[in-house]
Amino acid sequence: MATLSDGVIDCSPSKKPKLDENSEKCKDGIHETLADLSTFQLEKVLHNNTNRKTVCLKGKFASKNGDALVLLEKTAFAEENLKEDSDYFTKYSSLEKVFHNDIYGNYNYFPKINLNSIKATIIHPATEEHFVKYSQQNCCIIDETPEIYQKIVLPHITSQQFDLAWVYNILERKSESDRIVFEDSDPNTGFILLPDLKWNGEVDTLYLLAVVHKRDIKSLRDLTGAHLPLLKNIQKKGIEAINSKYGLDGTQLRIYLHYQPSFYHLHVHFTYIKHEAPGILAERAHLLSNVISNIELLPDYYQKVTLPFVVRENDNLYKKLKV
């Protein structure tokens, strides 16, 4: 029996599944032909996260088969737009007063349209699993013992995980090759480093993923002493690549793995330490340096340790764990 600690927490997904235009699932060409969202027909608001300024929507595109999931996210301020000759403060912007009291004024501000963008992510055709994943719902923390992992969690993730075709497209350079920041092509210790979908390109919010070339490592649970050369290579060369391209050194980076991950092909997150990236909470993020140290102390550490993770109440895994 799994141990569940009930509680309502922020369960908005931290990783967005990707569907590539070359994927068999995109035969209707929505990602190639979509020019705007004017044909999107809203059916339901799945989750309005006021803290992260994101909203998840379910709907359809006119004349296209299948359901769609659209995620809208307000983008961060770019410092280059806030300099002395800033485009934020021109005659094309406007203020709308909310109230004024002595020296304090509260306003709604409307800058030029090009400075007021909203990041949009589209999943089409989306499955019921996507809608469950992105819906607002209660969550629980489970303390996953090795026995629970082997008997319940592993069979579940083996049968229920999202398609990894988009990951293999990246590794085979069929997709997103122009976004690659660095690649080590070694089949055993190599990886591809590229921007996460959530990153808007500003260094202040830097968010990269290192996706390993090996295809037989699902998650933290699979890591053993045999993988230390891989993990150390990711740590060393990932830091070097980011320092060369973005000017940040290792002390300025938060480097971690998720458990559980959003997709079951080993990948490592690199974020700027001052950026409060999604998914850095204690019950999910495991610093790469700690992972390496744990395995050095005990090669099968992650096959023996109890690991906490968050599960959503509408997830089929939650129902299996409650039995």
Structure notes:
The chain is α+β, with helices and mostly antiparallel strands and 323 residues long. Helices cover 23% and strands 29% of the residues. It is built from 8 helices and 15 strands. It has helices at residues 30-33, 128-134, 146-160, 165-171, 228-246, 288-297, 301-304, 316-322, and strands at 3-7, 40-49, 54-61, 67-74, 94-101, 104-110, 118-123, 139-144, 182-184, 191-195, 207-212, 253-258, 267-272, 285-287, 307-312. A 6-stranded antiparallel β-sheet has the order 9-10-11-13-12-14. A 4-stranded antiparallel β-sheet has the order 2-3-4-7, covered by helices on one side. The chain has a 3-stranded antiparallel β-sheet with strand order 1-8-15. Strand 2 (40-49) and strand 3 form a beta hairpin. The protein is globular, with a radius of gyration of 21 Å. Residues 1-10 and 12-28 have low confidence and may be disordered.
The number of distinct β-strands equals 15
SSE succession: EHEEEEEEHEHHEEEHEEEHHEH
Strand content: 25-35%
Describe the strand arrangement of the main beta sheet, using strand numbers.
9-10-11-13-12-14
Rg over CA atoms, rounded to whole Å, is 21 Å
Average pLDDT, all residues: 85
Helix content: 10-25%
Largest sheet: 6 strands, antiparallel
Number of helices: 8
Shape: globular
Structural classification:
alpha+beta
Report how far apart the termini are. 7 Å
The poorly predicted ranges are: 1-10, 12-28
